[in-house]
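WARN no homologs supplied; continuing
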Amino acid sequence: MAGAARPLLSRLFTPNYTAMAAGHSPSPTRRLAHLTRHLLASSSSSSGELSSVGAPAAASPARATASKGFAAVLVCIFQDPRGDTRVLLTKRASSLNSHSGEVSLPGGKVEDGDADVKTTALREAEEEIGLDPALVSVVTVLEPFLSKNGLDVTPVIGILSDRSLFNPVLNKDEVEDIFDAPLEMFLKDDNRTTRERNWMGMTIPVQFFDYETEGKKYVIWGLTAHILTRAAAVVLQRQPSFAELPRPKSAPLSSKH
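OK structure emitted
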């Protein structure tokens, strides 16, 4: 991680809360409050913009009317022993009908009982990987991305202050594997390629990141890759080293979604 980012991250992630027994949530600290203010000021969640997955801005009118529903994903970040910021990722079960075997962020469709997208992201993370919502401090919500299936997908950024308190329990019907990756890699051109894919009837460039850990190889691409690049830019306060793709605008979303 670049030296310039370390002072900020050391302030943001130092866990000064007292680890409570199971069933008690961690108490927010002044540093966490500082992170909340920083991310709220940095994100454009209030702008109503709909991020692209790579389609040209001229296509925005079609995309603004293309939404088939709402979903949310949890961008759960934590600090490793070296002080680097990492993000939790999953590999979807090969038996799933949609996006089988692909790398994704924990998340899913908004349900009627969900108060907001933050509730959706935390609920889905608990269902998929056994992540107790009490361990996660949600700090901001980014602007929604439109998936190739027509869903408005909202990234919810949360901090796992103590990684050691999280013991993954995978829902094998949905998740085959869980791993983490350095958040900074999604701002670098290393191990990144761009390929053309058909997206809602258009041929667009989609980015792919190759990653290997513990002898396993993963490809993080498409919507997940673009969300992580956006989240990394917000959290690390730095633009990617490659040219970002245009983000068309849409009408503002409702306060719930």
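The two ends are 34 Å apart (CA to CA).
OK
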